[in-house]
Model the fold of this input.
Amino acid sequence: MQAIQGMGWRLVESQEQVATSHLVDSLAEQQLLEDLLDYSKPPRLPGTENLHYLLATPFRYPPLLWGSRFGRTHEPSLFYGGKSINVTLTEGAYYRLVFWHSMATPPPSGLLRTQHSLFAFHYRTDRGEKLQDWPEQAKLTDPVHYGYCQDLGGRLRERGVEAFEYRSARCLEGELNLALFTPRALLSKRPRRQSRWLCEVGPDGVSFLGGEGNDLYLFPIDLFWVDGKLPMPA
Done:
C-alpha cells in the first residue's frame, strides 16, 4: 500500500435538465421537479453529503448487471476516472459503442447525438496502489474478461485500499485510469475545469467535439475490436 495523488477526469452525459425542461413552465418548477426526482433516487453514501452531485453520484448507484472492471455485482460501486482527457474520452467512446450495439432498434438516422460534461477532480490517499507497476499486466488489461480484475478489486477492498491507478484496457497508448472505493480519497468537493462536449455515435465509430479549443476526437470501432468484433463488458 502506498500514497497516491493527482488529478483525474470524468465524462458524464448531460441529460437531466434537457429531459425535464419541457415538462414545466418555469425554472422554479423545473427545480422542484428535479428535487423530486433526486428524492426518488438511492440515498447518498455517507461521506458524500458535502460533495457536488457529479462527484457523489458514482458512489450512489448499485453496479451494472455485469459489475465493472474492478467491481462485482454484489459490491458497492466504484468512482472511476481517467488520468488524461484522451483516455477518458477513449473509455467513453467504448461504452457509447457498447450502448449502440446493445440497442434493439438503432435510430432511423443511423446516428445518435448526445451532450456530455467533462470535468476534472483531485484525489489523494495514503492507502493507495499503483497497479500499473504490478505484474500480470495482460490480465489487468484484458479487454474481454473482467474476472481477474473483479477478484483483485474485492481483495483490495478487503485490505482497506481507498483508491488505485491502473492501465487502461481500451487506450492503445497504455494511459492510466484510476478508481476510488471511497469518497475519502477525493480532495475536490466540486468539479474542476468543466467543459461541454458533443458526442456522435454510429455503427462504425464515435466522435467527440468540445473543450476549450473545440477539439475533435475520433474513435473508429476497430480501435476496440478483439478478434474482429466489439467485446462486451463481462
